[in-house]
């Protein structure tokens, strides 16, 4: 409080011009600093996000390329697996019924099959592991022997895998002729088509790690990066463009990747070795392969520093320019603006007709002239416009009261005629009684308000008549709090909504049957009615036009305008609908703002 008094005393001693300058400094400097700070943070975030997404997209394309190559190798294994000739050769070998001629012929056939498929760019070597050691397994280039124990172990391991195949990183592998290659191999069982429980052999297709590294190299990002291909937690291949000083610790990197879900896709910032990196991960196909990328964060953040300096320079320039202009303009505007402000305050207090002395020929003098003209005319204009608006709304309500829906009257009289022909006198009496009640409550002896109880009685009378017309296909349920019964509301606000629910909702259903539910409750200072129907509903686009001046919903729009006229903004009609499901119309009124007539007139009935 003491600080507040000091500020008030200090404010009282200052001239308006000084106050304007201080206000300009406070208003401009603080927002400029805040805007500059958050603009820099946001721009840095956007640059990082866009760069990360670009790298993630490059990673995704590389993953697709790797997945395509792996799938191509798997397809080649399918070709070998389904080769009828190879099945026959291995079946003969399993029976150990080979002659020398069979060995030579089978060997040539196997080599021809393998060599044709080894021409694929993705395959370094195709190996066929054959049990029972037929003579051609001594070749040890494409055909190898496999012991019964090894065959049983592979059979057990691969049978648990999808398509009885599994990729295995073998690392540095020696081949005949002192050739060593780092490879990853696809192992697949060859089952006997004639006896699926019998294993004929194992296919091993070796892919050179350099082939996969070439795919990683083709990713060719603009910034230094490192790309790594993993199967499970095993590193299969990698490629780096990072300088030596930016290379990362392998154990720490492996640990971070193990913490990332195997099927996770995205990016995050990590730190190790005193540096920040952007770690991106991308699954490869539907397997347990995944691709990881590492980019030094310093290469990304450096792009936003220039933007930060530009924002700072721009903010300072704007503050300086605006402050200089404020000094000049405050000196020019203070006096006449203060006088004009005092007169405007008089307008706020209802002192219409007062004028100010016109000085000068600039825009402020134009404001003075217009103010004088406004001050002279405003009272008459307000009174005239308000009176016209009130009269117009009242006339519209009177027209609405006197308007009888010709279709409704025709259908009701047609129902009476039909019932008379059928000689059902009690039903006829019921229809005519409800019709009489409907018109009596509608007229309400000229009163513009009605109790909730009478309004509900009016709606029930309408539904009774309509339900006879629709042969009992309509159901009407009310759940209105009893405390609302004596509350006064504008009359004829519920029946038009119920009529719309029948005509535009339920009547358009194939069976022309449905349920209308009316719910009413008191919510604090407000009364809320909700009318539900299970009709055909409407699209959001159609519902949005119902309350527009040029829209089709005349009755609904009339209720909306009447409620806003009586209660003001914040009250009226809300529409919610879904095509094929139904419509809900909510009416919000203010409780206790109207006085209802304690007597609605004597009950006129027909017997």
Question: Layout of SSEs?
Answer:
Layout: H1 2-13, H2 16-81, H3 84-94, H4 100-117, E1 125-130, E2 143-145, H5 148-159, E3 165-175, E4 179-191, E5 199-208, H6 209-218, E6 226-231, E7 234-240, H7 250-259, E8 266-272, E9 275-284, E10 289-296, H8 297-348, H9 363-402, H10 406-421, H11 425-443, E11 449-451, H12 452-469, E12 474-480, E13 488-490, H13 495-505, E14 514-523, E15 526-533, H14 540-545, H15 554-567, E16 572-578, E17 582-590
Parallel strand pairs: 1-2, 12-14
Antiparallel strand pairs: 1-5, 3-4, 4-5, 6-7, 6-10, 8-9, 9-10, 11-13, 14-15, 15-17, 16-17
Number of helices: 15
Overall strand count? 17
Q: Bin the strand percentage.
A: 15-25%
Instruction: Report helical residue fraction.
Output: 40-55%
Distance between the termini: 77 Å
Oligomer: single chain
Low-confidence stretches: 595-607
Give the CA-based shape: flat
Please compute the radius of gyration using only Cα atoms: 44 Å
Structural class of the helices, strands and pairings?
Answer: alpha+beta
Mean pLDDT: 79
Question: How many domains would you count in the coordinates?
Answer: 3
